[in-house]
């Protein structure tokens, strides 16, 4: 019997959407206000969903504290109150769109999880704009 456990987290971060190899005008045409050279920020909401079998001894799929600690070290400590373009190495050459941020978070969290678990990351950039990534 497979069950999915969800853990919510929150972080604030600034970013700028642009490509270094494009002109300012092309970046502006594609990314609009998100191309602000002075950056802009979001209050991101993250939902990490872990699916697996219920352990008959503990009754858990995963101890939520384990998931909480992984999210804290791999996401919150790494991204919170940071400029993603400048301070987070994963975005040195990767445009920090919501899609790319979700994939980076997935890879960081997945690397710390037992491989038996299926992971899905949902990242809200705003209450109405969000992305989901499950490694597929």
UniProtKB/TrEMBL annotation:
Stored InterPro entries:
6-PTP_synth/QueD, 6-PTP_synth/QueD_sf
**Which reaction(s) does the protein catalyse, per the Swiss-Prot or TrEMBL entry?**
7,8-dihydroneopterin 3'-triphosphate + H2O = 6-carboxy-5,6,7,8-tetrahydropterin + triphosphate + acetaldehyde + 2 H(+)
Please give the superkingdom of this protein's source: Bacteria
TM region(s), chain numbering: none
Q: How is the cofactor bound?
A: Binds 1 zinc ion per subunit.
User: Which Gene3D superfamilies does this entry report, sorted A to Z?
Assistant: 6-pyruvoyl tetrahydropterin synthase/QueD
- Statement: the UniProt record of this protein carries the keyword Disulfide bond: no
Q: Tell me the Pfam families matching this sequence.
A: PTPS
Q: Which cofactor does it need?
A: Zn(2+)
- Asked whether the keyword Transport is assigned, the reply is no
UniProt record similarity statement? Belongs to the PTPS family. QueD subfamily.
The protein here is known as 6-carboxy-5,6,7,8-tetrahydropterin synthase
């Amino acid at each position: 019997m497979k069950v999915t456990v969800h853990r919510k987290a929150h972080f604030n971060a600034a970013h700028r959407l642009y490509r270094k190899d494009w002109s300012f005008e092309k970046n502006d045409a594609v990314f609009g206000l998100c191309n602000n050279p002075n950056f802009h920020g979001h209050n991101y909401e993250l939902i990490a969903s872990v699916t697996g079998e219920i352990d008959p001894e503990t009754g858990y799929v995963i101890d939520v504290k384990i998931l909480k600690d992984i999210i804290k070290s791999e996401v919150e400590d790494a991204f919170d109150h940071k400029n993603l373009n400048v301070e987070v190495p994963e975005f040195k050459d990767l445009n920090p769109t919501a899609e790319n941020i979700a994939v980076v978070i997935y890879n960081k969290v997945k690397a710390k999880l037992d491989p038996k678990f299926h992971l899905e990351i949902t990242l809200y950039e705003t209450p109405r704009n969000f992305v989901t990534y499950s490694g597929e």
